[in-house]
Design the sequence.
């Protein structure tokens, strides 16, 4: 019952199918959330130095420039307009939870994944209007990355242009041409893994493609989302890979009736009733209604970004760009990319 709730199913329909009370499916979901958090084997922890090296080797098979061990990005976790009580507890105004770019209330979830698209770090601390730069700049991971020895030498995170380039963060060039454009292509080959991880998470757990109920507190919402991230990792480690089952027709209908997102391939709008698994596609299945909302500068000043530019170390972006330029690597023609 809990997994049907996580898939976006109607609690009343689930209750009828299982012959239980109307409240029991939802109660079972929260029991599973608690059980997941009590299992230390499912904990999400950023890898140690040796594990970082092993993860970098996995990325190496995906691109010419495999010197990263993880990719980072933010995603909007959709919620209903929070109550005044919720806002008072968290210390934010209601308007802060509204992401104007996506026209939704939500939470900014920052996450890091590896080449297999397992989450290595997840944090939900800020409302939906927060920029990815600010959310990361105030994060626990950023403090750890600035500690000497935390990140193995020669490795870095790959993020999009919402973040700031630094000794531990490699981001694309803006308005790129020439060798900068070639660099951006190869950088995106690795960075896109985090978008794929988000896509797999939301496709697998359909409750994430509609707004969380208004009667669920922000704290409980955060707890449930983190539990689903842990179960996402469990599915990958259990040899499910990128394969995700197509959605139950009833669950898809319930999501749509609740005002949720339509995902044509998994919702089988073509009438195909097969229940075979399908492979997540990073182009057809990209979550445009939830991604890129944090790429703005509304909540921080240029001086905050200049702090990173004043760093004197040679950054990974500089080294990788030179490597690409010196070896003549070029962005493939558009017809050859897919």
Sequence:
């Amino acid at each position: 019952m809990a997994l049907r709730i996580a898939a976006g199913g109607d609690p009343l329909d689930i209750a009828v199918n299982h012959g239980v009370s109307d409240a029991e499916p939802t109660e079972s979901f929260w029991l599973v959330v608690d059980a997941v958090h009590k299992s230390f084997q499912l904990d999400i922890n950023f890898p140690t130095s040796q594990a970082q090296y092993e993860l970098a080797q996995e990325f190496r098979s995906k691109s010419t420039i495999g010197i990263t061990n993880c990719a980072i990005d933010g995603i909007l976790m959709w919620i209903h307009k929070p109550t005044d009580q919720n806002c008072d507890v968290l210390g934010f105004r209601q308007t802060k939870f509204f992401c104007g770019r996506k026209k939704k209330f939500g939470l900014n979830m920052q996450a890091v994944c590896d080449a297999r698209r397992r989450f290595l770090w997840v944090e939900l601390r800020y409302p939906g209007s927060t920029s990815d730069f600010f959310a990361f700049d105030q994060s626990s991971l950023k403090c750890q990355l600035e500690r000497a020895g935390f990140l193995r030498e020669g490795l870095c995170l790959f993020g999009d242009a919402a973040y700031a380039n630094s000794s531990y963060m490699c981001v694309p060039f803006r308005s790129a041409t020439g060798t900068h454009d070639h660099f951006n292509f190869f950088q995106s080959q690795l960075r896109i893994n985090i978008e794929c991880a988000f896509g797999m998470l939301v496709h697998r757990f359909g409750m994430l493609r509609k707004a969380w109920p208004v009667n669920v507190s922000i704290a409980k919402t955060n707890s449930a989302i983190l539990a689903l991230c842990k179960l996402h990792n469990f599915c990958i480690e259990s040899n499910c890979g990128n394969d995700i089952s197509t959605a139950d027709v009833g669950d898809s209908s319930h999501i749509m009736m609740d005002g949720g997102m339509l995902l044509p391939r998994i919702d089988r709008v073509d009438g195909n009733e097969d229940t075979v698994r399908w492979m997540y596609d990073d182009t057809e299945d990209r979550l445009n209604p939830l991604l890129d909302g944090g790429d703005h500068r509304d909540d921080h000043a240029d001086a905050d970004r200049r702090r990173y530019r004043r760093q004197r170390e040679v950054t990974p972006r500089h080294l990788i760009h030179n490597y690409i330029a010196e070896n003549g690597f070029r962005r493939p023609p558009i017809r050859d990319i897919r």
